[in-house]
Amino acid sequence: MKGLEKCTICPRMCMINRNDHPGCCGVKNKIRAAKACLHKWEEPCVSGINGSGAIFFSNCNMKCVFCQNHDISQEGFGKEISVASLADIMLRLQKNNAHNINLVSPTPYIYHIKEAVNIAKNNGLAIPVIYNSNGYENTEALSCLEGLIDIYLPDLKYYDDKYSIKYSKAPGYFEHAASAILEMYRQVGNPVVNDNGILTKGLMIRHMMLPGLLFDSKKIVDWVIENLPPAVYLNIMCQYTPMYNAKDYTEINKKLNYKHYESLIDYAVSIGLENGFMQAQDSADEQYIPIFDLGGIE
Predict the structure, then answer these.
(1) What are phi and psi of 163, to 5 degrees?
(2) H-type helices in 131-285, by residue range?
């Protein structure tokens, strides 16, 4: 595929010819996906009543030691599909009354997604398209999606590099994620919801608090408040569940102290957060993790 000869899609800038070899993300030049379904466990304004049309891509440009989707993100479980098949999956999800198309962990596939969304739109795709990302993005690569993505749903995981390197092997995470989020906002602007309360356009940021990182989380909230309009949604999440290799890191091999989470919510409100989501304590449960069985992938 053109653009993958010396890959610079993400901040790793690996310069690998992905037409011949996998990049640092583990992806060559073919799409690999693990599930497509109506997903009902996103934010209420994303999942609505019918569910979000989620397409879960395999592999990832981050290496989070606690990843709940590690079987697809780190171990590469999935099935190869063509760009045309990806477009067909989008149209099928629309036919099944999905509120939107939710591209989960899409970063290594930016160029494939650009082609697939264009094909789908030319064949009647009319529901919003969501780019649901870990935030470790190259701003220049994101620019090629302008006009094709309706909703950006990035994570903003870490402020301090020592944590992004230790837990996700992602140097320069905050610098790149912050720049990418500003580009996302430039493209789609403030959130817009329809008469049914479903998000149709705009930026929503997610931050999942990790055990022991209250100060780091406060710095994330500070940046959002200081750099984006109050209309932008910030979802502060407490769903962290120690999985995968979290067992090797004593300090995060436990669930979040909910009192610390409530302290972060109080802090966010005190400094001006207006549009936000918070989670109940029981959200930290493995039952909300999808079963990746290739369902919906053809």
Answers:
(1) -80, -40
(2) 139-142, 161-168, 173-188, 214-227, 258-270
